[in-house]
Amino acid sequence: MKPPSADERPRSRPSPVMLNVLTALIGIVTLCAGIGWLVYTWIVDMEVPYFAIPLVICVPVIAAAAFRNFWD
Question: Which sequence ranges are marked TM in the entry (predicted)?
Fold first, then answer.
């Protein structure tokens, strides 16, 4: 009997607690990066890009969901 190839082998999955912690950390880091960018543009350009505020709130959720779906 042949050993399974890399394509046939099931992918290892982290524990649910570790997956939840990593998902939350990715969301928080992405949110902090977005807030940092907003503060930076406010200081440098002396104007807040109001169109970007909803994106700064939504993108961390999308990034965390994409990371979580990678393991499903």
Answer: 21-43, 49-71
pLDDT at position 4, please?
64
Which contacts (CB < 8 Å, 24+ apart) does range 53-56 have? 56/31
What's this model's pTM, rounded to 2 decimal places? 0.78
34-43: long-range contacts (C-beta < 8 A, 24 or more apart)?
34/59, 34/60
Domain residues for the domain of 59 are: 16-70
In whole angstroms, what is the distance from residue 29 CA to residue 45 CA? 24
In a domain, 30, yes or no: yes
- Positive/negative CA dihedral, 72, 20, 14, 26: positive
